Amino acid sequence: MESYLLSGFLGFVMVNMLFACGRRQVTFSRNYNIIWGNDHFSSLNGDTKVELTLNQSSGAGFQSKSRLLSGLFNMRIKIPHSKSPGVVTSFYLTSTEAQHDEIDFEFIGSNGPPYKLSTNVFTKGVGNREQIFRLWFDPSTDFHSYTILQNQYQVVFFVDDIPLRVFKNLGNEANYPTQGMLVEATIWHAEGWAGKIDWSKGPFKAQYQGFDIDGCVVSDPSNPGKCDYTHGDAWAQNQTLNAAQIAQYQNAKRKYLDYDYCTDKTRHPQTPPECQAPI
Ligand SMILES: *[C@@H]1O[C@H](CO)[C@@H](O)[C@H](O)[C@H]1NC(C)=O
Ligand SMILES: *[C@@H]1O[C@H](CO)[C@@H](O)[C@H](O)[C@H]1NC(C)=O
Question: Is residue 218 within 6 Å of ligand 2 at its C-beta?
């Protein structure tokens, strides 16, 4: 009996260890393809880390093989060194419909600090919903975790598990991302919008880790249909932030919010409905 319990316990430990290692070891090429800038892309550490390079000739980008309707999308990112105005490093979800949906993280290169992270939500081709945050760390010195939760209730942007932004589904299809989306990441040259690039500081290199994708895969892009949320995916159940997350969110918003479309009366004379929705 005792040895039975012991071997059961050891089996349990081993399964957990395998699972933990398995998650860490998901390779880039299992879930992603490079889509442009092939010679500005390197696969490192047994394909568990990749590097995208921007120089005067090109940047680079990659894309998930599958299309997803919702999920918990996480990427660990280290952006190019801190003297990089004009360089944009991104991680986002996008549909390919003519009037597309998109949920973005974009690092706006700077001579930081401050280090600015822009977030945006496009629905049916319309964006203009930018919120920019000043990061409380230098994102070019270490990997940090950037996460988008999207389910039928809300979109939440997290940095190192701290919720920075919540975008509620108010039941209006025109105002919520409902199309199957691809996960993408790029480094590109946004001179003018993001500042002037000093090419003598280049090439600019961004690194990405964490290529497992936890979401609802949809097969038909033109008709994503509905996901089956009954099989217990944890991310599908998060209808609101919990009490601890609300406290983190309020604190982060107060300390780090740099630009908010919700309060930009020039662009939005009338406050958009999602800005007034309770968290
Ligand atoms: C940019 O990088 C590519 C790939 O490494 C290289 O072939 C090209 O010469 C570089 N261009 C410039 C302008 O440095
Ligand atoms: C979802 O909710 C559970 C329970 O409150 C919480 O432990 C978990 O961190 C939440 N996940 C996200 C991504 O917010």
Answer: no
Please state, as a whole number, how many other Cβ atoms lie within 10 Å of the Cβ of residue 164.
22
Ligand 1 contacts CB of residue 38 (under 6 A): no
pLDDT digit string, tens, across residues 145-160:
999 999 999 999 999 9
102 assigned to active site: yes
Which residues, including other chains, have CB under 8 Å from residue 32's CB and lie 6 or more apart? Answer: 62, 63, 64, 65, 183, 211
DSSP string, 43-95: EETTTTEEEEEE-SS--EEEEESSEEEEEEEEEEEEPSPS--TTEEEEEEEE-
Ligand 1 site, residue 57, Cβ cutoff 6 A? yes
Active-site pick, 106, 130, 191, 274: 106
User: What pLDDT shows up at residue 112?
Assistant: 80
Do the Cβ atoms of 279 and 170 come closer than 8 Å?
A: no
pLDDT of residue 231: 63
Q: Which one of 238, 245, 246 would you pick to mutate in the ligand 2 pocket, going by the greatest count of ligand atoms within 8 A of its CB?
A: 238
Q: What is the pLDDT of residues 136-190, one digit of tens each?
A: 999 999 999 999 999 999 999 999 999 999 999 999 888 999 999 999 999 999 8
Nearest CA to ligand 1 atom 10: 57
Q: What is the pTM of this model?
A: 0.90
What gap in Å lies between CA 131 and CA 174, rounded to an integer? 20
Confidence of residue 221 (pLDDT cuts 50, 70, 90): low
- DSSP for residue 252: H
Q: Clarify whether 274 is annotated catalytic.
A: no
